[in-house]
Design brief:
The protein is an all-alpha fold. The protein is built from 3 helices and no strands.
Length: 89
């Protein structure tokens, strides 16, 4: 069996989330597992599993989603009136 993949800290272990219980819980329940999955994908190709499969596109798409998803949810548009007027149509 391979040694555990050293990958730094998980998002829930980030010092910026230490004093924010709700953020830390969200990260530990929903985001950490996705980072762990990504760490496994980045270990490919694994000769024991599939020597010719690297999952490069899958890993790149996952990294983009991990960054853009929370960024989109946390961003605050400058002009909310434009958003509300287009969504009411």
């Amino acid at each position: 069996m391979a040694a555990p993949f050293p990958g730094g800290i998980l998002p829930s272990d980030n010092p910026e989330a230490a004093n924010q219980a709700a953020v830390r819980q969200l990260l530990s329940e929903l985001i950490d597992m996705q980072f762990l999955d990504l760490r496994v994908l980045l270990r490919l190709p694994d000769p024991a599993l599939a020597p010719n499969v690297g999952c490069n596109f899958t890993a790149a798409a996952m990294m983009t989603n991990l960054i853009s998803g929370p960024a989109r949810c946390m961003s605050r548009p400058q002009r909310r009136s434009l958003i509300t007027s287009t969504t009411r149509a």
